[in-house]
TrEMBL record:
Its cofactor is FAD. Belongs to the MQO family. It catalyses: (S)-malate + a quinone = a quinol + oxaloacetate. This is Probable malate:quinone oxidoreductase. Its EC number is 1.1.5.4. HAMAP family: MQO. SUPFAM superfamilies: FAD/NAD(P)-binding domain (SSF51905). It comes from Arthrobacter mangrovi.
Length: 497
């Protein structure tokens, strides 16, 4: 349902969720089960949930589990391949899977086929140096229980069986290498966000679509006042909330700055845009069934790792390649060119200048990408699909990603490729900055928010969380038996067998 307040009116609620993406809807769905009597209102600027950063056409990756993303396992100086980050991300993805399985088994979000589908995850490289690296990565990962089913091959015929489009037309003398995990998935986070929002609305939450939060300020009574604009009527109203979560994607930084909490000082944002090539040939789409990730270009941000990617959007199979990086000062696809300059404050100016000085390779990469012609874009695709017919691919614009800039005592500022949870000292407001791995780790990140912001209540919630997430509190990689049982159960409920 959509709640509309008359201009100037005020209402008191327990929880305000700003943004209708996967983060806010996950947090709201958790709270509706942990504390069903609390009043919750969600405010989304667009016409429905999941249309901005969570939308599959705007999302650079739709199921990050560290199975194939090479940026999570960079080689160390001695040539070894550390696995800790990949293991950590995969652990988090298993928490999300368990939460989704719980929501499905309880009948809260309908059929899992609407938002998750089985899909192999594959890494693919060429040349001696990259092939040697991928083999070392394979050897390191297969020793971890979470990755024990990973496969590796340099055989052209076997790789052609895995991904025929990638191998057809390729030089038979070229050294190539691929690793694959058959048990990967593709997730439509836009659809999932709308399902979770629907569950919230059916259980008493107010879903306010077409409502933009203009300001967040601390009231004298310690609560938070939200100034909310109804986009249809232009009217504004005030909402008083005991707790606020800012899950507004690229719009989160501005609102956290306006809230004035000291914990947000020193943070800035660097927006990165992108484009994809999307196939329009159904016969080509039908012949590729995998997420195939390669090595990033020098200076490229992690979410710009090239991939030839099968996706299921609104139940329909599609195929895209990219992303091609770009730059826009917008913090949201639906945002303003003033987003970046208006985010500059005295407290984050030095970190932002330090990042600009130390990341010239990224600037060079983005300029090169912006100037890249369509033939050059097709040439990049041809590295993954040698027989590509360029006319059968359309160029689409992806969503904005705002990378976190934060203070650093040594350099003045660092560009952080990841997610950052910012929480006030009293736990009354929290927000999420950053991008990858993002959506795939929504459930554990929102549980982290609950733990930080509601420490007293959290102790009472733990038994309920354990019921929702059987592996809650456990490290599956350190408990292969539990990992096997939980994987089998979630695969069954999510119909991934």
């Amino acid at each position: 349902m959509t709640a509309i307040n008359p201009s100037g009116s005020s209402k008191n609620i327990d929880v305000a969720l700003i943004g209708g993406g996967i983060m806010s809807t996950t947090l709201g769905s958790l709270l509706k089960q942990l504390q069903p009597t609390w009043s919750i209102s969600l405010y989304e600027n667009l016409a429905q949930a999941g249309l901005e950063s969570s939308d599959p056409w705007n999302n650079a990756g739709t199921g990050h589990a560290a199975l194939c993303e090479l940026n999570y396992t960079p080689a160390a100086a001695d040539g070894s391949v550390p696995t800790a980050k990949a293991v950590g991300i995969n652990e988090q993805f298993h928490v999300s899977r368990q939460f989704w399985a719980h929501m499905v088994s309880e009948g809260h979000i309908g059929s899992p086929k609407d938002f998750i589908n089985p899909l192999p995850h594959m890494s693919f490289v060429w040349g001696d140096a990259h092939s040697d690296y991928l083999k070392r990565r394979y050897e390191a990962l297969r020793a971890e229980p979470l990755f024990e089913k990973i496969e590796y091959s340099e055989d052209h015929a076997e790789l052609a069986d895995w991904v025929p489009l990638v191998m057809e037309g390729r030089d038979p003398g070229q050294r190539v290498a691929g690793s694959r995990v058959v048990g990967g998935t593709d997730v439509d986070f836009g659809t999932l966000s709308r399902k979770l929002a629907g569950y919230m609305g059916a259980n008493g939450a107010d879903l306010n679509y077409g409502h933009k939060v203009l300001n967040v300020s601390r009231a004298s009574n310690g609560r938070w006042d939200l100034k909310v604009k109804n986009n249809s009527t232009g009217e504004t109203s005030t909402v008083s909330a005991r707790f606020v979560f800012v899950g507004a994607g690229g719009g989160a930084l501005h609102l956290l700055q306006r809230a004035g909490i000291p914990e947000a000082k020193g943070f800035g944002g660097f927006p990165v845009s992108g484009q994809f090539l999307r196939s329009t040939d159904e016969s080509v789409i039908a012949r590729h069934n995998a997420k195939v990730y390669g090595q990033a270009s020098v200076g490229a941000p992690p979410m710009s790792v090239p991939h030839l990617d099968t996706r299921f959007v609104d139940g329909k199979r599609s195929l895209l390649f990219g992303p091609y990086g770009g730059f826009s000062p917008n913090f949201l696809k639906s945002g303003s060119f003033l987003d970046l300059p208006l985010s500059v404050r005295t407290h984050n100016l030095i970190p932002m200048l330090a990042v600009a000085k130390d990341n010239m390779s990224l600037v060079k990469y983005l300029v090169t990408e912006v100037l890249k012609s369509r033939p050059k874009k097709i040439a990049a695709l041809r590295d993954f699909y040698p027989d590509v017919v360029g006319d059968a691919w359309e160029l689409i614009t992806a969503g904005q990603r705002v990378q976190v800039i934060k203070k650093d005592p040594k350099s003045g500022g660092v560009l952080q490729f990841g997610t950052e949870v910012i929480t006030s000292a009293d736990g009354s407001i929290s927000g999420l900055l950053g991008a990858s791995p993002g959506a795939s780790t929504a459930a554990p990140i929102m549980i982290q928010v609950l733990q930080r912001c509601f420490p007293t209540e959290f102790k009472n919630w733990e038994p309920k969380l354990k019921g929702m997430i059987p592996g809650f509190g456990a490290k599956l990689n350190e408990n292969p038996s539990l990992l096997s049982d939980i994987t089998a159960d979630t695969d069954r409920v999510l119909e991934l067998g």
